[in-house]
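Please check this record.
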Amino acid sequence: MIHLRSGSARLTSCTMDVVSCSSLMFWSRRILGYRCAFHVPALLASVMICSSLLCPAGAFLYNNRYAGDRVLRITPSNEQEVRALKGILGLMKVDFWQPNSASLIHQNRSVDVHVKHHDIRGIHKRLTDQKISYQVLISNLQKEIEKQTGHRSSRKRRAESQYDYEVYHSLEEIQSWMFEMNRTQPDLVGLFSVGKSYEGRPLYVLQLGKRNQKKAVWIDCGVHAREWIGPAFCQWFVKEAISSYQYDSAMTRLLNQLSFYIMPVFNVDGYHYSWNTDRFWRKTRSKIRKFHCRGVDANRNWKVKWCDEGASSHPCDDTYCGPFPESEPEVKAVAKFLRKNKKRIKAYISIHAYAQMLLYPYSYKYAMIPNFNCVESAASSAVKALYSAYGVRYRYGPASTTLYVSSGSSIDWAYKNGIPYAFAFELRDTGYFGFLLPESLIKPTCTETTRAVKAIASGLLKKCNPDKDRFPYI
């Protein structure tokens, strides 16, 4: 907590976790923004004390809860191993990283799971007994977390007065940044809220580009709380668009002819929780009656083949679809905005991680969308543009065949509601870091993804004639 009295800042308490320090940084930036010259030295001194003494980076992150935990990659080679693995992982109650649940385990497809330290011996014995081979991707999860948000990057984050796009930011910092973008770039950046989350946090959206454009693009990030690279990308894209507006002819054309609605953190409650309590939290934070488990998968809660294959009806599962479609205030608020503006919004883009894929409908079934040629062409152009940056390869195609079947997804809903181009990115990497993509990889990841998004948006300014000029009721 920070108290400001008589032109001085006094640090009264700083708990030994990542949250206290990020809060200090948030308030230091607010004060710097107001140019209170007499307050800043004392406040920055407090930040430095907290950073170096009271909050030693890594030492108390998440109360050391992940010490000794591992991430395993298991690949069943036949149907017998698939059945055995489903039973083992169901019994152990592991945290699924990829795919999202045991029901999606298939032959010869990798399964990445986070195993608690006290379960490692047990799972090793069970896998060995069934002759199922596996490899260790991360041998100590706590240490990997400390690497991602460790001492070097923490000091960097707190020492600079300018916003750093190459580190991960807390919800408070991101929302403060959004206000600052609107304040300093009013001609290009608007700010509004589409509603409030379950816990009462505002759901802020930036409108990027010249006003009153006939066509628009929606981009959301942070649907799943633990996928921190998502919000990092949304911020990076806004920064790149603004900084290159005057000299990049392609970006100038896009911002002059399109509006971009950008939601850096869709799941604000979950994202905040992933910084405070559980780094690998995925869902929202809503309470479910008669169950101690909390939250709904915000990408299984949309009103399109709701709670069918690839979604769970059990509140304790990570892919829980919710008690009814749009039960989550976050989903309901965004759906309402998209419905209201569906005549203008020509592309819906949702940023996720991890897998290095670009996906489009359908998610819930194996079928070809009516305007497949146009969407496939846009996806191909995007992946080629992405590859041109660093040579990173992405797979692309229908979500159901490229990744896995899932119902109640946002891209299927967007497509059903007449948005002709609906995409979901699964950003870096393919499992070596998983959800703990290092801050050193934020710049290349966001740079290449920006090229892909620009390619999709540029395609909207051209005409594409699909075989069928209609959109199906799903």
